[in-house]
Amino acid sequence: MRGGIDMLKEEKILVTGGTGMVGYSLKWGHVYGNGIPNATFISSKDYDLKEKEQVEAMFVKYKPKYVIHLAARVGGVKANTDYVADFYYDNIMINTNVLHAAKNHKVEKLVSLLSTCVYPDNITYPLLERNIHNGSPHDSNFGYAYAKRMLEVQSRAYRQQYGCNFITVVLNNLFGENDNFDYENSHVIPAMIRKIYEAKQSGSIVKLWGDGSPLREFTYSGDLAEVLLFLLENYDDPSPINIGQTTEHSIKETAELVCKILEYDKNNIFWDTSKPMGQMRKPSDNSKLMNLGWEKEQFTDFRVSLEKTCGWFVDNYPSVRGIK
Description:
- The protein is an alpha/beta fold and 324 residues long.
- The chain is built from ten helices and eleven strands.
- The strands form three sheets. The protein has a six-stranded parallel sheet, sandwiched between helices.
């Protein structure tokens, strides 16, 4: 069940962060076969969303009816730790400017992405939307996490004062085609794919952080693209909604599956336990999404998703994001 998303074909949709992984899936994915008609995909090369004047100019030019706000400064554990203040500042400015302009230009609906990292570090599982602000996030990415929490706060505040239909969705670990494969700023799966592929080419070992025991939920970007359009038509609640695939996989299990897909010997992985590995697990509850009519079977099988992503990486290497 995908609701009435066909009507979106006729509307002006502005997608910030439009050349990233999720934007790629919205533009080239299987939602409509060849992308969303009437959608404009904005990248940081088009406008610097940290600058209020540039955001205003963007809204004046495109006059969107709907906005899918994907733009953010993102990265893995190392980047979040090394540049914690930059992650906070950049995301606060991006979100503040985009939502304020959307209010001023009377956008009919705006959907923004959060992450499960916004949840408190010490919390009872599974992660429930009502508990987002009930404690401090994990130390490894608190700057990014608090900035994302403020995106949720700003959305509710603008709804309350101005009547804006701004919704927020909470995503877990995302991966897919056109991901960022930079070693310093990528998330776990793209970093893993690149390391394993390049180690295979050079005949070297792979070094991964931690011991591989943490559990993570992974969602394929192609599935997320469909969920976002589904929610544009079917969700108007002021409270956030968890939208990710909720099956847990260990980091070690995931690495070994990537090894199998790329035909690399898993015994050549060295687990560096002197390095941080983040939270042990953060399972989420997506029952609100399921109650809207989304079905578990609509999520792509994890192995199939990994095969698609690895295949895309191999076919496009080295001309992928994050490799200079």
